[in-house]
Amino acid sequence: MTLDRTVMLFAGIMVLLSVVLTQFVHPGFVWLTVFIGANLIQSSFTGFCPAAKVFRRLGFKSGCAF
Predict the structure, then answer these.
(1) What is 10-46 written as a DSSP string?
(2) Is residue 63 part of a domain?
């Protein structure tokens, strides 16, 4: 699996997890969803993604975006 797909998978899992936490634990978890969305937007403009740096160090092979 490439780094790009790993980052997209991780972002999708985190969004779904934050929705579940918002629904069943506390409404304040909606801010996790906001943070994930803001991070995705800024990484589309800058090309910098903290998750991509972590996954690269874990040994995932580079893709087109990261």
Answers:
(1) HHHHHHHHHHHHHHHT-GGGHHHHHHHHHHHHHHHHH
(2) no
